[in-house]
Design a protein that fits this description.
There is one protein chain. Helices cover 18% and strands 25% of the residues. It is α+β, with helices and mostly antiparallel strands. Strands 1, 2, 3, 4, 5, 6, 9, 10 and 13 form a nine-stranded mixed sheet that branches. A hairpin with a 6-residue loop joins β11 and β12. The longest helix has 11 residues. The chain is globular.
Length: 317
């Protein structure tokens, strides 16, 4: 693998959400993961953003979907609210990973050497509303009643900056519930504390959640909460909201699986809280992962298509 000078300026050691000036240059071991974050205009390696999106949409080596509980947000909360236990199928987190993303149109990629052109591994995590709630009038936006609000949570896995050691191996084989590193009590308390209204959409420290060991390495790190009202949710194109879009900071030659094997088995902790401001909230915690550790390299198949996502048992309120 190769790491270029610009990487030291933009280095993200497993999901650093910081400004460029805050990033500390790091030399990574072979089992480390250095990530570059995409922007609205450009992919991670300064290639056109549309090129990045289309490659992951059409040529991902591993994809996986994690279903979660959620209400019918197209109807007023009083008629479809979580207090009735009513849910609408189709809510999910999804992840896609591509092993050999081209650098042909990158403005900063290293030039090909005697072994050929370079490639990188790319990843995207989306939060998805039910397709049944997407309008069919050509706008491809969601139908959302004014009552509904959503709060989305994610955890910073910047192990390099926070000196937390290596990424926990237990999470590389987690079943999607995060139960490999969190207790049932902690998970239940996290979901109870997750509130979708604007004034309470925030991260909280909970006594039941350990701040040491593997749990502390992940959930004791920076937490980010993002609030969305009905107007914001309606603007999610095709009912999808991009949570993360990253690329491996270390380029490789075609056929080098090392970065992909490492990257695709990372579990990304996320949580969704959906409510109408009147009734109880539907909240779910997920550890979203594209492939099993040591899965034999590039999968080249869609786990979601095979229905593997249905085997994931989400812990519900």
């Amino acid at each position: 693998m190769y790491i270029t000078p610009h990487t030291a300026l933009r280095l993200l050691h497993v999901l650093a959400i910081t400004s460029i000036s805050d990033i500390i240059p790091t030399v990574l071991a072979d089992n480390g993961v250095a990530l570059l974050q995409a922007t609205e205009e450009e992919g991670p390696w300064h290639e056109p953003r549309l090129e990045f999106d289309m490659f992951l949409a059409n040529r991902a080596n591993a994809t996986r979907e994690f279903p979660i509980p959620g209400p019918n947000i197209s109807a007023p909360g009083s008629s479809s609210g979580p207090q009735t236990g009513s849910t609408t199928d189709g809510w999910s987190w999804s992840i896609a990973v591509a092993a050999d993303m081209p650098l042909d149109n990158s403005s900063i990629a290293p030039k090909p050497n005697s072994e050929g052109p370079f490639y990188y591994t790319g990843l995207k995590v989306n939060f998805n509303a039910p397709p049944s709630l997407v309008t069919s009038n050509g706008g491809k936006n969601l139908t959302v009643d004014d009552d509904w609000e959503i709060c989305l949570y994610a955890w910073d896995l910047n192990f390099g900056q926070h000196d937390l050691g290596e990424y926990p191996d237990k999470l590389r084989s987690d079943d999607g519930t995060c139960a490999s590193v969190l207790t049932e009590e902690c998970i239940a308390d996290m979901k109870r504390a997750a509130r979708p209204n604007q004034s309470q959409c925030s991260c909280q420290e909970l006594p039941s959640c350990k701040t040491d060991g593997d749990a502390g390495k992940v959930f004791g790190n920076n937490c980010y909460a993002s609030y969305y009202n009905a107007s914001s949710i309606r603007r999610w194109s095709e009912g999808k909201h991009e949570m993360w879009a990253f690329g491996d900071a270390m380029v490789h030659h075609l056929g080098d699986n090392k970065a992909y094997d490492n990257f695709s088995s990372l579990a990304w902790p996320v949580m969704a809280s959906i409510g109408d401001g009147k009734n109880d909230v539907m909240a779910s915690l997920s550890c979203v992962r594209a492939a099993d550790v040591n899965s034999g390299g590039r999968l080249g198949i869609s786990w979601a298509t095979l229905g593997m996502g249905l085997a994931v048992c989400m812990l519900m309120l």
